[in-house]
Design a protein that fits this description.
Blueprint: H1 4-33, H2 40-47, H3 68-72, H4 74-108, H5 112-123, H6 128-134, H7 139-152
Helix pairs in contact: 1-4, 5-7
Length: 153
C-alpha cells in the first residue's frame, strides 16, 4: 500500500501534468480527425526491395520474389495500416479522456473555494502571486488551502 506522501505526490504530479495532457489530447484529436494516411503508392514503394542482378548495381523499384505475393495485395495492406493508425489514435484519445475526466471530476467534487483554487492554479496556470491578489489572501493562506485541497483529493 502506498504511503500518504506517495499518494499526495502522485496527485500533485497529475495536477501539474494537466495542461500538457490537454495539449496532447488536442494534438491527438487533430491527428485522429485528419489522419496522415498511407497511399497505395507509398505502400508499394515501401515493399520494393532492390537486389543486384549479375553484378550490376541494384535497380530501384524491383519487388523481390519473396514480396511478390505481398505486392499483389498492397491495397489491403494499405487499408490495414491506415485502420491501425486510426485505432491507435482512438485508443490514445480514450485513455487521455479518461484520465482528464477523472481529474476534472475529482477537483469538481471539492468545496467550491478549493475547487476554484486548484482549477486556477493547475488547469489555468495562473501564477501564485496573481492568485493571492485575486483571492485576497496571503501566500501562507494560499499554501494552507492548497494543502487542504490536495489532501481532500
Amino acid at each position: 500500500m502506498e504511503s500518504w506522501n506517495a499518494i499526495r505526490s502522485r496527485v500533485i504530479l497529475l495536477l501539474q501534468e494537466y495542461p500538457e495532457l490537454k495539449a496532447k489530447r488536442q494534438v491527438i484529436k487533430h491527428e485522429w480527425e485528419n489522419p496522415n494516411l498511407v497511399s497505395d503508392d507509398e505502400m508499394l514503394s515501401a515493399m520494393a526491395y532492390a537486389r543486384a542482378i549479375g553484378g550490376m548495381p541494384p535497380s530501384t523499384g524491383h519487388i523481390s520474389d519473396k514480396t511478390a505475393h505481398i505486392a499483389a495485395s498492397y491495397h489491403e495492406n494499405t487499408r490495414y495500416q491506415n485502420q491501425r493508425q486510426i485505432e491507435d489514435l482512438s485508443d490514445q484519445l480514450e485513455q487521455l479522456d479518461g484520465k482528464l475526466y477523472r481529474l476534472e471530476y475529482c477537483v469538481s467534487q471539492l468545496p467550491p473555494d478549493l475547487s476554484t483554487l486548484l482549477q486556477k492554479l493547475y488547469f489555468e496556470k495562473v501564477p501564485r502571486k496573481i492568485l493571492t491578489e485575486d483571492l485576497h489572501m496571503s501566500e501562507s493562506t494560499l499554501k494552507r488551502h492548497l494543502r487542504t485541497a490536495i489532501d481532500k483529493l
